Amino acid sequence: MLKPFRKLVQYTSSQKGAKMTILAWILAVVLFSLLAPSAKEYEVNSKEGSIKGDKPSEVAQQILKEQFPSTDGLPALLVFHRDGKISEEDIGKINELSEWLGSDEKPEQIMSALPFHSLPPNVQKQMYSENESTLLINLSLEPDLESSETLAVMNEIKEKANKIDMNGMQFEITGPAGISADTVSLFKSADIVLMLATVALIFILLIIIYRSPILAITPLIIAGIVYGVVDRILGLAGKNGWFTIDSSAVSIMLILLFAVLTDYSLFVFSRYREELKKQESKYVSMNEAIFHVSEPIVFSGGTVLLAMLTLFVTIFEPYNHFAPVFSVAVVVILIAGLTLIPSIFAIMGRKAFWPFVPKVEEAQITTHGIWSAISKQVMKKPALLGGILLIVLLIGVFNFTSIQYSFNLLKSFPEDMPSRQGFELLEENYPAGQLAPMTVLIKSDKEFPINAELFEKVNHLVSILSDESNVASVTPTIQDEMLNIPESLPRNYLAESNKAIRLQFVLDSNPYEKEALDTIQKLRDSEASLLKASGFSTADVKLHFAGQTAQQLDVNHMNQRDMIVLFSLVTVFLTIILGFQTKSVMMPILMMATILLSFFSTMGFGWWIFKHLMGYDAISYRLPVYAFVFMVALGIDYNIMLVSRIKEEATKLPWREAVGKGVAVTGGVISSAGLILAATFAVLMTQPLQELFLFGFTMAFGILLDTFLIRGIFLPSILVLTGKKE
């Protein structure tokens, strides 16, 4: 299985092959740069929907569009607030802004705005919040605007408000348009900052650990070359529509690329240094080093690729759109690990390690460091060390069951972001359910007979729904005088096709919280009984719920389904891959068990820190999926590296001593790689999104736990206890 890869690395580490390999990579970068666009040009934000668009809320939204076509564009909510009460002077300022929004001077992208300035004072006052401290005015922008255009319009409105001088009254813009504009502002230069921070951090850590400027800069040069190729391949894919280029995936891919290539560089030059102490020729030394290191690189790259490919089976759009971006990146990274890395270090030879140049006379490998001491303790007391760590890890696993998840992504934005502040002002001063009213659709396969009996049935349904728990209101109710006069029905109540009736549905609770989701689930489950109790036939009439709460309920279901499928497939596939590598049945099961234990304990301890030390009530529902895929896929690298060396040593030493030697020899490189990988993911904590902050922290914490405790002590203890005695 490894023969083709070993033939490849034998060539790329030879004198001629190394030069040809570097030339090929440079040509690839130049050609891609000249002929292909950057991925940045085609990045999009994935929507919170399913890849097929067939979930109940999506079906309801499609029916709503078909039966009640609207020319409404992208809504923006203008929020005005003053502590205490809005004054008459404040109303004058608001009227001035409203008048401008209705004039020819307004931005041309604004389709319509509520004419607040032309309403009578008593009507204006009815629009205030109950405590008269807050006012909401909505406007619509043209549909399908670019995010940059939306940002420009929002900035124009803010500039006009500043010129009017609100005199201390708080003015924020929220709603879809406000959120879109703020998102663009937040991430305008985020990728560049992320790349620079990553490069700087890796360089500093490599300098501190290896004290060689050449060793520190070389992995970064390699990563820069590989990124140049990956970026342009993704750009070609975006240009030709091969797959979606998700902006979040590209940002995290950048971290993955630099971190994994640095890991592979550490694996290669650590073994290369060993071989240079045994023989003079730099090419023969690299040939020997890469012969041994190619196995962990191939298997670790293969497992990471397999983990990324399993994302294709997910149905939640953001998860599914991660799959192609990461799969392409991992393939190129794996190729670079077997070609570019060994060829560059082979050509550089001993100079790469300056000022600590390895010499042949130093051939005896010394293992007197901290990892040698740890390995001796592992060999001496495996049951005690393994037992203590198992108890500690199980405490974390137990805490995993108490994690609370949030489906309100706006809470992931910074607290001072205008759209979040505006939303929270509305949340504090208006009834919670009015933040995102639901739409109930009564849809028939045939035309409804338009008569008093139909409207009486609908009124009865309105009454039943209104009596449900956590329901604030269901409107409209058709009055007796309207029953026989269809023309007097409320606007957008009855579809022109006469096949659908539209009701507005407001909840008592926050539309993004669990109580609201549970209410919609209960109503969906009760659809048949609700229709029968109202007098409708369930054979050709259906109830549909559209709106944010219904959408978040479907997101919850998709997330649960994807977690189960993804966790199961990744666990099974990676165990099989480890079986091929170890040529064993028991060892891959043990290795996979430690990886899963590491993940669940990390999530559990992380949740305790988030809740008790950082004050979070809930974390993003996406965090477990992202953390699982990356933590398991990357954590397995160190498993493979350790076990590969133990197997090699077991051909010369008794099993217990082989495990100890494996830990002592690989402990330094694995801990260095883990430290760099953790620090690289920690860079995400500088990003403005709470979701990225928590993901960065979780990954950094999990990798450190995995590197120093699981891989350094727990797994070796288990291998000593379950392995061969001689």
Question: How would you describe this protein?
Answer:
- Keywords: Cell membrane, Membrane, Transmembrane, Transmembrane helix.
- This is SSD domain-containing protein.
- It is found in: Cell membrane.
- It is a multi-pass membrane protein.
- Pfam families: MMPL (PF03176).
- The protein folds into four domains: about 220 residues, Multidrug efflux transporter AcrB transmembrane domain (Multidrug efflux transporter AcrB transmembrane fold, Up-down Bundle), CATH 1.20.1640; about 110 residues, Alpha-Beta Plaits; about 220 residues, Multidrug efflux transporter AcrB transmembrane domain (Multidrug efflux transporter AcrB transmembrane fold, Up-down Bundle); about 110 residues, Alpha-Beta Plaits.
- The protein has 24 helices and twelve strands.
- Strands 3-4-2-5 form a four-stranded antiparallel sheet. The protein has a four-stranded antiparallel sheet with strand order 9-10-8-11, with helices on both faces.
- The chain has about 725 residues and is an alpha+beta fold.
- The model has no long low-confidence stretch (mean pLDDT about 90).
- α2 crosses α9 and α21 packs antiparallel against α24.
Strand order of the biggest β-sheet: 3-4-2-5
Which percent bin holds the helix content?
Answer: 55-70%
Span of the ends, CA to CA: 28 Å
Number of distinct beta strands: 12
Which radius of gyration do the C-alpha atoms yield?
Answer: 31 Å
CATH architecture of the largest domain: Up-down Bundle
Amount of beta strand: 5-15%
Q: Mind telling me the CATH class of the largest domain?
A: Mainly Alpha
Structural class: alpha+beta
- Supply the number of helical segments: 24
pLDDT < 50 runs, ≥5 residues: none
| Average pLDDT, all residues | 89
How many domains? The number is 4
Looking at how many chains there are and whether they match, the oligomeric state comes to single chain
> Shape from CA axes?
elongated
**CATH homology superfamily name of the largest domain:** Multidrug efflux transporter AcrB transmembrane domain
Which sheet architecture does the biggest sheet show? 4 strands, antiparallel
CATH topology of the largest domain: Multidrug efflux transporter AcrB transmembrane fold
